[in-house]
Design goal:
The chain has 4 helices and 2 strands, in the order αααββα. With 174 residues, it is mostly helical.
Length: 174
């Protein structure tokens, strides 16, 4: 609602037809919404990992308050990352609107934004998904191992008892 309609109009016309002030808000909201989406995915990947890795400590302690805290934290991070777009747009029109294109155009922000809005969440997601896959594999391996040992005990333990009983009987006959 905040980004797509203006973005579609700009794409269809081939340039940004609105005033500079609208461009500042559009560019800020675009960065804010994209950043929030990416950080929410990072938060979900961490949540999945902790739920799988620590099911009794973490998985059962999800309350509305904790979920609300996570959402507020993600939006606060996103606002902190996107707010320079707004400030830079006010300071100099070229920072957001250049050659009819409305997008962050400040080199320092591109580096800062890329690191904090993309690369850090990317590393978090790759790491937590790798750890999640490793934890799931370990659970599966342990489950197979446990099942194998259990079957062996169910098969060989009764057989061993029977053999032991026959050995006792045989010794009693002598």
């Amino acid at each position: 609602v905040l980004v797509m309609p203006i973005g579609m109009i700009s794409e269809v016309l081939g340039h940004f037809p609105f005033p500079h002030s609208v461009c500042i808000i559009f560019a800020t909201m675009d960065v804010l919404c994209c950043t929030s989406s990416i950080w929410h995915m990072s938060t979900m990947s961490m949540d999945r990992y902790f739920t799988i890795r620590f099911p009794f400590r973490y998985g059962r302690n999800k309350t509305r308050r904790i979920m609300l805290w996570k959402i507020i934290t993600v939006w606060a991070i996103s606002i902190a990352i996107s707010s320079p777009v707004f400030v830079l747009g006010i300071l100099d029109q070229q920072n957001v609107l250049s050659n009819g294109i409305c997008a962050p155009n400040n080199r320092s922000f591109k580096i800062y934004g890329s690191i904090f809005a993309f690369f850090i969440p990317f590393i978090i997601m790759i790491t937590t998904y790798a750890l999640t896959m490793r934890s799931l594999r370990n659970v599966l391996v342990n489950k197979k191992k446990y099942s194998r040992e259990r079957r062996r005990k169910q098969t060989f333990h009764p057989l061993a008892q029977i053999i032991h009983q026959y050995a006792e009987i045989a010794q009693g006959i002598r």
